[in-house]
TrEMBL record:
It comes from Tunturiibacter lichenicola. The keyword Cytoplasm applies. The lineage of its organism: Bacteria, Pseudomonadati, Acidobacteriota, Terriglobia, Terriglobales. Its EC number is 2.8.1.13. This is tRNA-specific 2-thiouridylase MnmA. It catalyses: S-sulfanyl-L-cysteinyl-[protein] + uridine(34) in tRNA + AH2 + ATP = 2-thiouridine(34) in tRNA + L-cysteinyl-[protein] + A + AMP + diphosphate + H(+). Belongs to the MnmA/TRMU family. GO terms for molecular function: ATP binding; tRNA binding; tRNA-uridine 2-sulfurtransferase activity. Residues 161-163 are annotated as: Interaction with tRNA. It is an enzyme of class 2 (transferase). Catalyzes the 2-thiolation of uridine at the wobble position (U34) of tRNA, leading to the formation of s(2)U34. Residues 296-375 form the tRNA-specific 2-thiouridylase MnmA-like C-terminal domain.
Length: 376
């Protein structure tokens, strides 16, 4: 049920234009605010390891971002705190990312971070400092539906900035205490609002990289991180094979591949070849044509339901299998597998390209998020 909130709101401040604009908007509306930044990763930590840059700047969660967030808080004359969550971030996000990648899957650390750390920790810290709500710069919308008795998460007005794909893990409690003030706004208007408020970050570019992986070079990060831990990169070298089992070549490790990958296979072929599947037990990587990447099925587990309490009968949904994927229509069915962790099966109306284990599958009906899970 909706609750009667107090007037103090904790704003999650990343140092970017979106969260800064949220703080300026709520301040102008007369709310009492407290700015919070989660310090998640030491950008200098792996500096000097082979292939890693000496210093990292201008990325999500960098020292620059903390400086920018603090400066915005000073401009708006609101209290500001940095909350050190580096140990928990490593345990809940970095280590699972490393384990998944070494197992031949392609995880999404930003979703793991939202699901297991950011919103949970922000709400806990907010309560400790006397605020019972948080506001973030995510492009999403939420509301309480009286008829269903549930909080509903929906896509934003600006569909090009839709971030609901990364938020499917939010609980009803978290949704009830979270505000998304930018959900009804277009990005150009948000930048203008920040400029009108005199914020120096108004024209700051959006961060596109994973905060702890410079340049998106997963392989180099894995080697550097394991080296820091005193571990060697596991030997997962094996064969590159066709769908019929024909051996086309050798590879140095399954961690170098992801489903749908074309470049870097080390093979020459008349027709382009793509990674179709990664087999962690045999260390084989199956390759084939672009057409071979098409599939109508996926299974997902570790589910979270938002617009419904659970899935009890088949429903029609549209599904995103990647952040930039156009949602595709499918029939979603519960799989009875005798375990506590429910699994669902999705049968798409039309074949989809490169359904990738480890990625999220998020289910929609119109603009509403029904729920989501992790592709197995």
């Amino acid at each position: 049920m909706p609750h009667e909130p107090n007037n103090t709101i904790a704003v999650a401040m990343s140092g970017g234009v979106d969260s800064s604009a949220v703080a300026a908007l709520l301040r102008a509306q007369g709310h009492d605010l407290v700015g919070l930044t989660l310090q998640l990763w030491n950008q200098r930590r792996l500096a000097g390891h082979e292939g890693m840059p000496e210093a990292v700047q201008g990325r999500c969660c960098s020292i620059d971002d903390v400086y920018d967030a603090r400066h915005v808080a000073e401009q708006l004359d609101i209290p500001y705190y940095v909350v050190n969550q580096q140990e928990r971030f490593e345990a809940d996000v970095v280590k699972p990312f490393v384990s998944e990648y070494l197992a031949g899957r392609t995880p999404i650390p930003c979703t793991l971070c939202n699901n297991h750390l950011k919103f949970d920790q922000l709400l806990t810290t907010a309560r400790q400092i006397g605020a019972d709500r948080i506001a973030t710069g995510h492009y999403a919308r939420n509301r309480f539906d009286e008829a269903r008795g549930r909080w509903i998460l929906s896509r934003p007005e600006d569909k090009s900035k839709d971030q609901t794909y990364f938020l499917f893990g939010l609980t009803q409690e978290q949704l009830s205490r979270t505000m998304f003030p930018l959900g009804e706004m277009q990005k150009p208007a948000v930048r203008q609002m920040a400029a009108d408020a005199g914020l120096a970050v108004a024209q700051k570019s959006d961060s596109q990289e994973i905060c702890f992986i410079p340049g998106g070079d997963y392989n180099t990060f894995l080697k550097a991180y394991l080296d820091e831990q005193g571990e060697d990169l596991p030997n997962t070298a094996g064969e590159l094979v066709t769908t019929t089992g024909e051996v086309l070549g050798q590879h140095d490790g399954i961690q170098s591949f992801t489903v749908g990958q074309r470049k870097g296979l080390g093979l020459t072929s008349v027709n382009p070849l793509y990674v179709l599947a990664i087999h962690p037990d045999s260390h084989q990587v199956t390759v084939g044509s672009d057409e071979d990447l098409l599939s109508r099925d996926l299974f997902a587990n570790r589910l979270n339901w938002i617009s419904i309490p659970e899935l009890t009968e088949p429903i029609r949904v549209s599904i995103k299998i990647r952040h930039r994927h156009t949602p595709a229509m499918a029939t979603l069915t519960r799989v009875t597998n005798g375990t506590a962790d429910q699994t669902v099966h999705a049968l798409f109306d039309e074949p989809q390209r490169a359904i990738t284990p480890g990625q999220s599958a998020v289910f929609y009906q119109e603009d509403e998020v029904v729920g989501g899970g992790w592709i197995t």
